[in-house]
Structures are given as structure tokens and as C-alpha cells.
Amino acid sequence: MTLPVNSLEEHWMPFTANRDFKQDPRLVVRSEGVHLWDHRGGRLLDGCSGLFCVAAGHGRAEIAEAVREQLATNDYIAPFQLAHPGGFALARQVAALTPGDLNHVFFTNSGSEAVDTAIKIAMAYHTARGEQGRVRFVTRERAYHGVNIGGTSLAGLVKNRDAYPTLMPYVAAMRHTWLEENRFVRGQGAHGGVELANDLQRLVETYGGHSIAACFVEPVAGSTGCLVPPVGYLERLREICDAHGILLVFDEVICGFGRLGAPFAAQAFGVMPDMITMAKALTNGAQPMGAVAVRDSIYETVTEAAPEGAIELFHGYTYSAHPAACAAGLAALEIYRKEKLFERAADLSEHFLDAVFSLRDLELVTDVRGFGLFAGFDIAPGAVPGARGAALQKALFWNGLHVKFTGDVGLIAPPLIVERDEIDAMVRILRETIADFARTA
Ligand SMILES: Cc1ncc(COP(=O)(O)O)c(C=O)c1O
User: Tens digit of pLDDT for each residue in 203-254?
Assistant: First the structure.
């Protein structure tokens, strides 16, 4: 079939093998509910909510209408020293969803910007308290915190930092939380939680807690393969941070907005961070938007340190709290509330995990993990690491399923509106495609 575009050459695609893609393109030309349509007319199940974005499914008319209406009445307002009502309304609703006193929300345009904003807020907070000596940031092996310089500096995936020699200094990494003992365990593994979290204690003992500004973790490490924190892990990180004045930041760009069966992972695991970064499902993916929610004490410390009438935080984006993104966010949150989608994710979780864990008997599948409506599975690598994952992703696409792969790790995160039979269909396609692949690999 002819492609619906004149040329594929000019668009330099992100995180894509451009030369390969352009020889064997996969274009999506329509999307609705949990389905996508490719350029050859085939229909696929969206097993990854796009890129973990469309919690309420594709093509939500309420969101489209809210954005249209917003653009028609108030399309753009300078966000520095001016504002529009939608920014305040959305911040209030986001604050109501976050736990405890994370009541102040700074808007960005992506998850990457949310992470870099959280880094800068941590620095500004400690500066305001006279603790400029807190120059270090703690991250974790296998972490993904976006692609701006701050997030890249925190990256725990070597490919994401290899080509960029000049990053932030003073970043130290804890071990990742994948453990052989927790292989094929649903939910939180029983082993190693406190011991792995004590990596932070070791960094405190090596560098001095007074030199550490913040510890960033994805509560469930997402892009790297849905690594669920073992029992006691997040609690122990919280304890160590409290003991040493270190800010604990949960990067919930994937976990947030119901993916784990609660508004945020913070509630799903019952651990309160000092900041939460979010994006993706904040607008159901319909407009680019991210945000950082911070505790009252952080907001108050930074704002009160500045003289009356002065700007308190020298940071912001031309499109911070963009009216169309706020309209999309408000409409998305309304759908989540009305359709009780976070509760729905919790209810569906058992069926979903049963289905995905049924893949464990396949020869090529070496681990399965999952929590809520999020799961990951490992494929035994071939001679070239990542090659099997890339080939499988393509084969799955043409067999009717979109999922994300990071190297040889597959990620499944369907829209929260998915039906049980659609989950079964996704897993059937996975089973057949992986089994087929094993025969020819
Ligand atoms: C945990 C986490 N942080 C940050 C990001 C970056 O978000 P964005 O791609 O919107 O910049 C992602 C994206 O997948 C993510 O998973």
C-alpha cells in the first residue's frame, strides 16, 4: 500500500532506528479507544496506551471539545506575571490527587522538563535554607528520568548517556532493584528491599548526608522494564532521607494517574515523597504537559526566602500551564473521576497479571513482573542485545499489538478502560508471536 506521506526522510524520529524504520515504516493513521489503525488498514490493540499516556483511551471527544473551546476563547496567555483560570483550576485538582501536603504544582511541557524542574527546585530549596553544600543527587541503575541534561545526568541506562560526555557532576547511583530471588514474582518481591535501599545509607556514609540534595526514584522503574520495588524498599529510602534532610522525589511520569490502581504510586505503596514529577496521562496524552507537585514546606521555604514583590524561582517555560494543555488536563481528570478509572485499574489488575504471567512457560521469556495495570517481561537476548526485542516489537505490530520494548524487555500498560477480553487478546498475540519467534530465532 502507498504511504500517506510524500517523504519519510526529513523527520528525524526520536529513540528510533531511523534508517531501519524508513525502509519498513509503521505509521498509525487513526486511533480510538484501545485501538490503532496502521497505514495498511490493519487494526491493532494498543497495549501500551501509546507511550503510557492514554489512560482513558484514544479519541476522547470530551478532551477534544475542551481543547477546541479553550483555543477558540483564550488560546495563549503569557505565563510569566500573568495567568489564566485553567492553570489554577488544574493545579488545585492535581494537588487534591496527590498525597499529604504536596499542594503546590509547577507546570512544564513534558516529563523531562518536570524532572529538570524538580532538580532545580531541590537546589533552590536547599539554597533558600542556606545549605548550598548539598550538591549531590542520588539516582539508581536502570533509571529513566527523561532526556534533558538533568534527567540524562540521572540516567541509569548507559545508552541514554553514552554520547553525552558533559552532564551534571556529583551524581551517584544506587543499585537497581531487579533481583534473581524475586524473578516471576507478582507485585512486590519479598527479598532485598531494605538491603537495596541501604545503598542510600552507604552513599550518606561515603559522601556525608549533608552533601546530598535529593534522591530520585521511579517508584516502579518504568522504561527499564517495570521493576516493582521489593517490600520495604521505598519505606527505607524515606527513613534515610528523613534522617539526613535529603529530599525524596518520586518520578511518577509513568506510575501516576491510576496506572498502579491508585492516583499515584505514593498512595499505592503508602510512602510520601517530598516531590512528585508527572506528565503523560495528566492530559491523557492529548496535549504535551508535565508537572511537579511539591510539599507545602518546599514551596514556602523558596517563596519566603525572596524579598516581598520579587520573583522567587527563576524558572519557567513559555508554555508553562498552556491554556489548551490545562483544558485537556481538566477534561482528562474529569473522565478519570467520572469513570472511576483508577479504581477500575485496581479491579482489573488480578485478571491482567494472571494473563501476563501466563507467558512464563514460554521458552524465550526469562522473567515477568507487574503491578496494577503495568507489566514487563524479559526476552532472552540473542547475539546482539536488543535485536530480538526490536524484531519482536515489529512482528507484534503486524500481528495486531502495539507494545513498547526497551532492549529485550517488553512493557505492557493498556488504557485503563481496557476490557478483560481485550487483555486476553493482547496476551494471545504476545504468546503466538513470541512462540513463533522462538521457532525461527
Ligand atoms: C519516569 C519517567 N520520567 C521522565 C520521562 C520523560 O518524559 P517525556 O518523554 O514526557 O519528556 C519518562 C518518559 O517515559 C519517564 O518514564
Answer: 999 999 999 999 999 999 999 999 999 999 999 999 999 999 999 999 999 9
Same domain, 281 and 226: yes
Q: Say yes or no: 240 and 376 in one domain.
A: no
Q: Are residues 122 and 250 in the same domain?
A: yes
Q: Is 111 in the pocket of ligand 1 (CB under 6 A)?
A: yes
Q: What single-letter amino acid sits at 410?
A: G
Encode 66-100: b = buried (16+ Cβ within 10 Å), e = exposed. bbeebeeeeeeeebeeeebebbeebbeebbebbbe
* 352, 339 Cβ separation under 8 angstroms: no
Contacts of 290 (CB under 8 A, 6+ apart): 107, 108, 109, 110, 111, 112, 113, 114, 117, 253, 277, 278, 279, 282
Q: CB within 8 A of 9, min separation 6: which ones?
A: 22
Q: Is the distance from CB of 425 to CB of 352 less than 8 angstroms?
A: no
Could you report the per-residue pLDDT of 330-385, keeping only the tens digit for each? 999 999 999 999 999 999 999 999 999 999 999 999 999 999 999 999 999 999 99
Calpha distance 326→86 (Å, rounded)? 6
The verdict on 177 and 88 lying in the same domain is yes
Kindly state whether residues 172 and 269 are assigned to the same domain: yes
Question: Locate cell 523558596: which residue?
Answer: 302
**102 and 207 housed in the same domain:** yes
CA 237 to ligand 1 center in whole angstroms: 22
If you measure from the C-alpha of residue 112 to the centroid of ligand 1, how many angstroms do you get, rounded to a whole number?
A: 6
- Pair (330, 344) in one structural domain: no
Report whether pLDDT(1) > 70.
Answer: no
CA distance to 155, 158, 205, 418, per residue, from 140 (Å):
8, 12, 17, 32
Residue 138 has pLDDT above 90, yes or no: yes
How many domains does the chain divide into?
2
**Residue 350, SS3 per DSSP:** helix
- The atom number, within ligand 1, closest to the CA of 111 reads 7
The CA 280 to ligand 1 mean position distance, Å, reads 8
Say yes or no to pLDDT of 276 above 80.
Answer: yes
Q: Are residues 297 and 386 in the same domain?
A: no
